[in-house]
Amino acid sequence: MPTIDVLLLTYNNLSSTQQCVNNLYKFTSNFKLFILDNGSQEDTIKYLKKINKQNNNIYINFQEKNHGIIKGRNKCFDFSRENSDSERIIFLDNDQYVQENWLDSYLEKMKDFDILGIEAWTMREHDFYPMRKTRQSEKNFSYVGAGGMTLNAKLFEELGKFDEDYEFIYFEDPDLCFKAYQQGYKVGWNCSLVIEHHHIGSLLSGKNKKYFIRNWKIFQNKWKDYEISVFER
Fold this sequence. Notes:
By secondary structure, the chain is α/β, with parallel strands linked by helices. It is built from 7 helices and 12 strands.
C-alpha cells in the first residue's frame, strides 16, 4: 500500500505545476498522485497527459471548468477514493514544492497529531480575521492551511470534507480545523517547513477579494458562539 496519496489541484501556471511534480518524484517514494485539473489551458493539459503516460502512479481527472479550490479539493478527494485505499492523504497546490525528507518529517510529527499542516495562521479573536502566519514553533495558532495539510482519509470524511458553503477559495481550512478541535482531534503545525510555497500573484486581488469577504462573513456567523482561544494550540 502506498505511504500516502498526494491530492494536487492544477489550473494553468504550467511552470509551477512542472516544478511541483518534479519535486514530488525527486523527493518522494511509494505514493500515488491524484491530480484534478480545474479546466486548464491546452499547454497544461498536454503536459498532464504526458506525465500520465510516463508514470503508473498518476491518476488525472480533467474538469471542463474551474470549480475553485474548495470544491476542487473535495472532487479530487472523491476521485482518489475511487482508485485508492491508502489511509493517509495530503492536499497540495501546484505552487507548493516538497523538499528532501518532507514525508519522513510529516510521518514523524503525525505521531502526535491527527491533522498536520505546513502553514499555521493566527486569527483575531473578535472577528476571526487571519492576522499572520506563524513563524516560531513555540507560538500558538488558530488553524493550519489546506495546502500542505495531511490527515487520514477516514477523518476527512468524518469531518464532512471541506464545507462548500464557502465559495471558490478561503476559510474552508479553518472551518475544518475548528470542527476537528470540537471533536477532540489534535491539529499540528510542521514547523520544519519541508514544503516551499511560491504564491502566484496576490492572494487578495481581483475576484479573490470578493470571495474572501463573502466567506469571512459566513465563517463569522458559523463560529460566532465560540471563543478562538479554545481552539488555539
